[in-house]
Design goal:
about 140 residues, Aminopeptidase, about 30% helix, globular
Amino acid sequence: MNIHTGSEPWNHAAALYIRMTVFVLERTIKMQDEFDDNDETDRVYTVIYTDDGQPVATGRFQTIDKTTMRPGRIATIKDYRGQHLGAKVISTLEEYGRTHGYVKSVIHSEMTAKGFYERQGYQVSSEPYEEDGVPAITLTKQLL
């Protein structure tokens, strides 16, 4: 497996392909909800590729403020789940954030993924709420 973090058009397309497959086709989230104003062409994504170049896992990097980052849209293609690729995406995005001066990470998580993020060192920092029609919660982690 190979991992790439960047905003190149080919990497952006790979990230959107994974999200379309996982969130829109598999989970039936509306395209208008999944693809939002934060998907600018210069957005940084981490994508994990198989050795033959197939994109299989992704995550999006966003900035909240000068010291706070927000990983999001973490997704893994069904046939590749259980290989800890989501955790690798998160740690890669956090490392990217650290190297760019971010000291805190905030994630808006679906309630069903709360345990996954807690295993990555995140702590619940909000009451449950609804986001895009899905029960969600905010979790935070200090990066330094």
